[in-house]
Amino acid sequence: MAEIDGLIRQLVEAGGSDLHLSPQRCPRIRKSGDIAELAQPVMSAEDTRRVIFEIMPERCRQEFEERNDADFSYEIPGLARLRVNAFRDRFGPGAVLRAIPSKVITVEELQLPAVIPALCALPKGLVIVTGPTGCGKSTTLAAMIDYINRTRTGHIITIEDPIEFVHEDKRCLVNQREVATHTRSFAAALRAALREDPNIVLLGEMRDLETMEIVERIVNAFPADRQNQIRAMLASSLKGVIAQTLCRRKRGGRVAALEILVVDWGVAALIRDAKTFQIPSAMQVGRHAGMCTLNDSLLALVQADLITPEEAYANTLDREDLSAKMKKIGLLPPELGRR
């Protein structure tokens, strides 16, 4: 039993999502979006180094010494699997351990919109799941892979750093590859995947121009003289974008607000013609196709009594629009309620 296992057990029993270890502080956990201290003594730099290095793979120790950070996974059978980022700050070595559920939460359990299973059923195309760190992207991606695994036959390849959710074969053959353990880089694994007869390729992250070029992801990552070509490629390959933000539930826990773009012929034309500024308007018109803006998703969560109007207001990117939507259904926007 590793020294850190007791702290991980406290994290799991408390229902927390992350364990934070920092030198000259006591251990902390994140629960329902908030950071809270554990009833543990302050850890010195020697303490944090010892408990982190005890579970760190040898290859990552060398990487940590050279780069001052490293990513790896750690598992306590029967209790938890964790994604670990070790780092060094001005006080010494530290780490954040993200708890990954041992059981994949399904599309149905997450109550994801019907358009997401529809995107999973597409025979080809690029689907992007995005959002800030800690927004639940990994959970949504795992649910989508699980849905495909249960409902289709084919070959699924995942490329991750590190492997998070573990998928067993159901109707599909699933190969999961971890960067640095099973392949040199994301780009190398993606190039190889194209020769491995895949039906679905899940790319955990995009960290370099080469990887982004292979999947034709972001026009602005490319030189100006190539952007028209990339726009055309992106317009034909991109099928959907799911952007999510985690909000605090009224009764504890968190729930995702989803902004969903379905790339129909109209949206594809806007991408190809460099008129992406018109996409928000197209999303309003495309509600019948499953498109949803962030504000509409936040408003739906408020109406379902899952989050407060204040929480919706704290997570919107357009307060004026959200205020207007709230007034329209008889809700008092938070800034007016304070007057």
Would you spell out the secondary-structure blueprint of this structure?
Layout: H1 5-14, E1 18-21, E2 28-31, E3 34-37, H2 45-55, H3 58-67, E4 69-76, E5 80-89, E6 92-100, H4 107-110, H5 115-120, E7 126-130, H6 137-151, E8 154-160, E9 172-178, H7 186-193, E10 200-203, H8 209-215, H9 227-237, E11 238-248, E12 254-262, H10 265-272, H11 279-285, H12 294-303, H13 309-315, H14 319-328, H15 334-337
Parallel strand pairs: 7-11, 8-9, 8-10
Antiparallel strand pairs: 1-2, 1-6, 2-3, 4-5, 5-6, 11-12
Sequence of secondary-structure elements: HEEEHHEEEHHEHEEHEHHEEHHHHHH
CATH architecture of the largest domain: 3-Layer(aba) Sandwich
- Helix and strand composition category: alpha/beta
Instruction: Catalogue the unreliable spans.
Output: none
* CATH uppermost class of the largest domain: Alpha Beta
Report the helical percentage: 25-40%
- Distance between termini? 56 Å
Give the CATH topology of the largest domain: Rossmann fold
Radius of gyration using CA atoms only: 22 Å
Mean pLDDT: 90
Spatial order of strands in the largest sheet? 3-2-1-6-5-4
**Total domains:** 3
**In CATH, what is the homologous superfamily of the largest domain?**
P-loop containing nucleotide triphosphate hydrolases
Number of strands: 12
Q: Report the total helices.
A: 15
Query: Describe the biggest sheet?
Result: 6 strands, antiparallel
Q: Give the amount of beta strand, in percent.
A: 15-25%
| Overall body shape | globular
